RNA sequence: GGGUCCGUGGUGUAGUGGUUAACAUGCCUGCCUGUCACGCAGGAGAUCGGCGGUUCAAGUCCGCUCGGACCCGCCA
C-alpha cells in the first residue's frame, strides 16, 4: 500500500491515528538528531518527523532524502507540543511521527523550487512543465478548469443537450483562419484540415434532427499567437434547433450565471448589459470593450472642424473623425513629455499620426493645440467633454477605424495604468448586430465578418447588393472584461439564402458547390431553423483564475512561435514518412 | 511579414571596453534532537545563447543568427 490518507486531510482530529501517506518532499530540515520533512501531495502539505529513537532505520533513510523525492511513509499523527506549533500553517498543530519510509523514486535537484512564488522564467517553467504543474498555484488552475467544464456539462446535460463528437480530420475551407493541414497517405496530394471550429458539423447535426448539441471541442487555427491566443484551444460549442435568439441568449446568460456561482460564488445580475456593435465602436473604440471603467470616446468632429487647426478640418472633409478621451483630474499626472512620448507610443501602432492634447484649467485650456480654438469653441469643447479644471483631454483625428483602434487602445492603457479598473468585477456584455460583411482591401471583396452561414437581418437585405457593408448580421459576441469569450449567430438554413450569401462573398456557383455543397444539400431536406454559439474555455478559465496568459490555463501550451519547448514540436520527420505521404520539402530547405 | 524588450553559475539578478566575472538563492560536505525562510562552518559550480566583426583588449560596441516575452498585421 502506498497510502491510505491524503496529506491535506489531516487535522487534530486525526491525532493518534496511524496513517500511510505518499507524496513529494517539499522541504527537508535536518537538525542532526531529528529530521523534518514537509511532505506534499495534491491535497496539501504535512510535516513528518524522523526521530532515531522512534525508528533508527527510517531516520537513516530520511537522511538520504532530498527535495522532490517521491515517498511513502507510515507513522502516527501526533498533536504537537504547545511550543512546537506553527501558527502560519493550516495543520501546523500536528505532525506525523514516522516509523517506516519507502523511497518510491529519487529526484534530481529541480531547476526551480516547487512553490507558488517563483522567479523562474516562463521558458524554464515550460521546459520543465511537469515540475511547474506540481506548484499548488498551477494545480489550482487545473482544478478550476476541470470544475468549469464539469459545471458547463452538467448545465447543458440538464437541458437535454447531447454531447456529440465531430471529426478532427476534416475538410479545408477557404474562409476564415489559416488551416492546419494533415497530408493524406491514401490520397496522394490531398489534405485533411484540423477544424477551426465544428461549425459545419454542428449545423449538419441540426439537419440530422439532434435538436440540441454541445461539445467541449478542440479548435485549431494556424495564425500568429498572442497572450490570449493559442494555435489549439478549447470551446464549449453549442447549437440548437427551433432557435429563438432571445430565448437562447437567456439560456447562455443562465449558464454563465450558474458558472460564476459555482466557481466564484458570485451572483451576476441578469439580464447582461447589451451594446450593438455600432454603439461599442462609438463609445469604446472596440467590439470587445472592457466596461469595468468608464472613460468613453467622445465625438468632436463637428467642433474640431470649426477650429483653425488644418488637420482637424481636413479629417472631417475626408469623412474621418475627431474623437477625444477626457482623463478626469489627470492633467498634472502626465508631463508634456509623457503625453508626447509614452501615450503617443500607445496610439501609433494603430496608424494614428499624432496624439493632440489639452490640459483644462479654470478659465482656459493649455496645450499645443489650444491656440486653434477660440473662446466660443473652447466653451463648446468644455461642454461636450464635460471638462473641468485638472482634466487631461486626448485627441485623435483620422479615419474612423484608426480613431477607434487607437483611442480604444489608449483607453485600455489608461484604464490599466491609472488603476481605473475594478479588478474584482466580472462585466458580462453582449455585443449584437455585427456587420454581416467586411470589405477586404487585400482580396478586393467582401468577407463574412462572423462566418458565411450567419443569417442577415432580413430588413437589411434590400441593401445587400447596393451597400453590402451596411447589412447587419443576426450574430452576437459574449464579452467579459474586455475579452471576447465567444460568438454565435442564427444560421442560414435556407438553400436560396445560402446561395445568395456565397454569391455576395464572390464565390462562383461551382466553388460554393465544391466547398459547401454538402451543407447546401442538407438545407434541401427540411433543416430546421437553428443557431448557437461557442465560448472559449481557456479564456473563461484565464479570467476566472486571474491569469494574465492563456498558457497558464493549458497544461502543455505552445510558445509565441507555436512551438512546444518541452517536446520540441514541431520537428522534422524522416524521409520515409515524407515519402509515404507523397511530400517533398527539399525546396524549403535552402 | 513588421516593431519593442530580454538572453551572464541550477534559478533569479548585478556588472564605465581593462587583473581572478559579483550578489542572492539553490546544491555538496561537516556539525547540530524541535525546525518550519532552521542555524553555523567550509566547498563546488559560468567556455556571459551561437557565429562573425571592430579593438592592444569585448560579458560590455557593431552585424548576423537562434531562443523567449509583448504588440501591430493576421485571427470567419
Automatic annotation (TrEMBL):
Region Aspartate, residue ranges: 199-202
InterPro entries per the UniProt record, alphabetical: Aa-tRNA-synt_II, aa-tRNA-synth_II, aa-tRNA-synth_II/BPL/LPL, Asp-tRNA-ligase_1, Asp-tRNA-ligase_1_N, Asp/Asn-tRNA-synth_IIb, AspRS_core, GAD-like_sf
Residue stretches making up the Aminoacyl-transfer RNA synthetases class-II family profile domain: 142-557
Pfam families registered for this protein in UniProt: GAD, tRNA-synt_2, tRNA_anti-codon
Binding positions (ATP): 221-223, 230, 484, 536-539
The organism's place on the tree of life at top rank: Bacteria
SUPFAM superfamilies: Class II aaRS and biotin synthetases, GAD domain-like, Nucleic acid-binding proteins
Subcellular location: Cytoplasm
Record keyword Transferase present: no
Entry's Gene Ontology molecular function annotations: aspartate-tRNA ligase activity
Protein family according to the UniProt entry: Belongs to the class-II aminoacyl-tRNA synthetase family. Type 1 subfamily.
Reactions this protein catalyses: tRNA(Asp) + L-aspartate + ATP = L-aspartyl-tRNA(Asp) + AMP + diphosphate
Keywords of this entry: Aminoacyl-tRNA synthetase, ATP-binding, Cytoplasm, Ligase, Nucleotide-binding, Protein biosynthesis
EC class: ligase
EC number from the UniProt entry: 6.1.1.12
Name this polypeptide is given: Aspartate--tRNA ligase
Amino-acid positions noted as binding L-aspartate in the UniProt annotation, renumbered to this chain: 175, 221, 450, 491
Organism annotation: Sporolactobacillus spathodeae
PANTHER family reported for this sequence: ASPARTATE--TRNA LIGASE, MITOCHONDRIAL (PTHR22594:SF5), ASPARTYL/LYSYL-TRNA SYNTHETASE (PTHR22594)
Function noted in UniProt: Catalyzes the attachment of L-aspartate to tRNA(Asp) in a two-step reaction: L-aspartate is first activated by ATP to form Asp-AMP and then transferred to the acceptor end of tRNA(Asp).
Assembly, per entry: Homodimer.
Amino acid at each position: 500500500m502506498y497510502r491510505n490518507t491524503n496529506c491535506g486531510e489531516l487535522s487534530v482530529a486525526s491525532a493518534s491515528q496511524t496513517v500511510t501517506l505518499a507524496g513529494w518532499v517539499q522541504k527537508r530540515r535536518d537538525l542532526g538528531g531529528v529530521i523534518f520533512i514537509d511532505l506534499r501531495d495534491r491535497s496539501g502539505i504535512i510535516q513528518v518527523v524522523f526521530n532515531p529513537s522512534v525508528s533508527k532505520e527510517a531516520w537513516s533513510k530520511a537522511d538520504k532524502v532530498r527535495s522532490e523525492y517521491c515517498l511513502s511513509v507510515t507513522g502516527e499523527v501526533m498533536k504537537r507540543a504547545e511550543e512546537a506549533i506553527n501558527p502560519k500553517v493550516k495543520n501546523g498543530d500536528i505532525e506525523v511521527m514516522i516509523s517506516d519510509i519507502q523511497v518510491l523514486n529519487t529526484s534530481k535537484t529541480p531547476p526551480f523550487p516547487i512553490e507558488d512564488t517563483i522567479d523562474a522564467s516562463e521558458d524554464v517553467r515550460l521546459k520543465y512543465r511537469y515540475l511547474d504543474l506540481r506548484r499548488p498555484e498551477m494545480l489550482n488552475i487545473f482544478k478550476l478548469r476541470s470544475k468549469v467544464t464539469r459545471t458547463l456539462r452538467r448545465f447543458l446535460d440538464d437541458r437535454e443537450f447531447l454531447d456529440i463528437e465531430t471529426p478532427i480530420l476534416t475538410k479545408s475551407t477557404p474562409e476564415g483562419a489559416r488551416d492546419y493541414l494533415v497530408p493524406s497517405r491514401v490520397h496522394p496530394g490531398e489534405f485533411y484540415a484540423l477544424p477551426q471550429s465544428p461549425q459545419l458539423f454542428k449545423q449538419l447535426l441540426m439537419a440530422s434532427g439532434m435538436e440540441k448539441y454541445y461539445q467541449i471541442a478542440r479548435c485549431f487555427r494556424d495564425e500568429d499567437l498572442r497572450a490570449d491566443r493559442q494555435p489549439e484551444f478549447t470551446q464549449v460549442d453549442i447549437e440548437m434547433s427551433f432557435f429563438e435568439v432571445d430565448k437562447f441568449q437567456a439560456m447562455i446568460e443562465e449558464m454563465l450565471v450558474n458558472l460564476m456561482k459555482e466557481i466564484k460564488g458570485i451572483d451576476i445580475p441578469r439580464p447582461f448589459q447589451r451594446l450593438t456593435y455600432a454603439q461599442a465602436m462609438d463609445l469604446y473604440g472596440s467590439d470587445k470593450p472592457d466596461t469595468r471603467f468608464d472613460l468613453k470616446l467622445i465625438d468632436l468632429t463637428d467642433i474640431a472642424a470649426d477650429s483653425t487647426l488644418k488637420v482637424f478640418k481636413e479629417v472631417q472633409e475626408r469623412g474621418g473623425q475627431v474623437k477625444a478621451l477626457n482623463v478626469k483630474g489627470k492633467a498634472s499626472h502626465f508631463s508634456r513629455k509623457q503625453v508626447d512620448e509614452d501615450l503617443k507610443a500607445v496610439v501609433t501602432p494603430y496608424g494614428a499620426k499624432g496624439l493632440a492634447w489639452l490640459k483644462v484649467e479654470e478659465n482656459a485650456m493649455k496645450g499645443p493645440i489650444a491656440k486653434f480654438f477660440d473662446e466660443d469653441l473652447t466653451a463648446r469643447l468644455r461642454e461636450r467633454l464635460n471638462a473641468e479644471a485638472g482634466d487631461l483631454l486626448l485627441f485623435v483625428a483620422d479615419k474612423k477605424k484608426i480613431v477607434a483602434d487607437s483611442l480604444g487602445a489608449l483607453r485600455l492603457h489608461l484604464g490599466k495604468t491609472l488603476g481605473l479598473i475594478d479588478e474584482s468585477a466580472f462585466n458580462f456584455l453582449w455585443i449584437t448586430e455585427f456587420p454581416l460583411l467586411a470589405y477586404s482591401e487585400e482580396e478586393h471583396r467582401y468577407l463574412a465578418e462572423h462566418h458565411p452561414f450567419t443569417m442577415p437581418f432580413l430588413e437589411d437585405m434590400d441593401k445587400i447588393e447596393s451597400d453590402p457593408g451596411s447589412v447587419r448580421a443576426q450574430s452576437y459576441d459574449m464579452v467579459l472584461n474586455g475579452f471576447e469569450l465567444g460568438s454565435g449567430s442564427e444560421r442560414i438554413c435556407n438553400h436560396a439564402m445560402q446561395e445568395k450569401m456565397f454569391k455576395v462573398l464572390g464565390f462562383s456557383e461551382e466553388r460554393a458547390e465544391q466547398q459547401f455543397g454538402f451543407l447546401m444539400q442538407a438545407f434541401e431536406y427540411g433543416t430546421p431553423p437553428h443557431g448557437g454559439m461557442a465560448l472559449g474555455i481557456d479564456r473563461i478559465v484565464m479570467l476566472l483564475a486571474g491569469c494574465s496568459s492563456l498558457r497558464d490555463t493549458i497544461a502543455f501550451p505552445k510558445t509565441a512561435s507555436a512551438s512546444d519547448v518541452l517536446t520540441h514540436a514541431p520537428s522534422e520527420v524522416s524521409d520515409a514518412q515524407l515519402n509515404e505521404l507523397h511530400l517533398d520539402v527539399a525546396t524549403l530547405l535552402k
